[in-house]
Design a protein that fits this description.
heterodimer; A: mainly alpha; Arp2/3 complex 21 kDa subunit ARPC3; 74% helix; B: mainly alpha; 3 helices; extended
């Protein structure tokens, strides 16, 4: 879902407005996340943030096949959110996206604001959907199903926003890009949901103490 | 979680095991672009290791693995630096 510069910037002036607008919106969200993260964590999250972000980078390199000759990979925003809470997740995902764009040209520089919004911000904020679905419950099955739904929706919502942003490059505009992105990512999202649910379920069994987000689910508010 | 180095190497083991099985099919966005025959504008930035490949290494799997290792390491370092800016000065 990484939008390249060549798709977000077209000859249409509207596309430049979209790219710059997403930079501004994402910067505001990142500043907000950084401020919130500073007051949210009472102990150092250095090790967990570093390792989990590094894992997400590696996991994003492993594409899995989906039907219709397409593939997808874990985005990981929801997974980071359940590990670290929404604010550190947004920041950690942004580090992943910076390295991908700068070193590997995976996602554009002008499109960076758009990519941060569609993957880091939507992914991190999916934490609050998990919180709503959990309704203060500590039930493991409920957590895993809430994580599945939230991670699926984070991919689908991200794809819809990406579809809107790339629409100036397509002759059919929004009516072409949004449904097409929606169809493919509704399927890719099932992979995202399944992988995230398995990771969360496994970690909760093997190493439940590192699932900081579960405590944060009850404590964190917008 | 004190053993960051050990877990970092486990991530590389994960990468080494799964990379050979990674799909080369286009991702969702690329499929949409190809389906409608859209030609992308040229990008002004092509990265240091475009497409997760190192030019001087001919074996594509090894090339991707090494670039992935570099990427994983830079994300680790970047996240650690970021997390240092989050630490409050109040006594814990």
């Amino acid at each position: 879902m990484h939008i390249p510069d060549g798709l977000i910037i077209t000859n249409e002036p509207l596309s430049i407005v979209g790219a710059i607008g997403m930079w501004i919106i994402s910067f505001i969200f990142l500043y907000w996340s950084w401020k919130k993260a500073k007051i949210t964590y009472s102990k150092s999250i250095t090790a967990l943030l570093g390792i989990s972000s590094a894992f997400i980078f590696a996991a994003q390199m492993i594409n899995f096949p989906v039907i219709f000759g397409t593939s997808g990979h874990l985005v990981g925003g929801t997974f980071l959110a359940i590990l670290l809470g929404p604010y550190a997740a947004i920041l950690g995902m942004t580090i992943v996206l910076i390295m991908q764009a700068v070193i590997f040209a995976d996602g554009g520089i002008l499109a960076f604001g758009a990519n941060v919004f569609t993957m880091a911000i939507i992914g991190g904020l999916s934490f609050f959907l998990i919180k709503i679905l959990m309704r203060n419950s500590s039930n493991k099955k409920r957590l895993v199903s809430s994580v599945f739904i939230s991670s699926w929706l984070s991919v689908v919502l991200g794809a819809i926003v990406a579809g809107l942003l790339i629409s100036p490059a397509f002759p059919g505009g929004i009516l072409t890009t949004v449904p097409a992105m929606l169809i493919y990512h509704a399927l890719i999202g099932v992979g995202e949901g399944a992988i995230t649910a398995v990771l969360v379920s496994s970690l909760q069994t093997i190493q439940p103490t590192i699932m900081g987000g579960i405590t944060l689910l009850k404590e964190t508010t917008l | 979680m004190n053993n960051k180095t050990g877990i970092f190497f486990l991530i590389l083991v994960f990468l080494a095991i799964f990379l050979p099985f990674a799909s080369n099919l286009p991702d969702g966005l690329e499929t949409v672009v190809e389906t409608f025959g859209i030609k992308e504008q040229n990008s002004f930035w092509n990265g240091l290791m475009a497409d997760y490949l190192i030019e001087s290494i001919n074996n594509p799997l090894l090339s991707t693995f090494i670039s992935g290792t570099i990427g994983t390491f830079t994300v680790l370092i970047g996240s650690i630096i970021l997390s240092k800016t989050l630490q409050s000065k109040k006594p814990s």
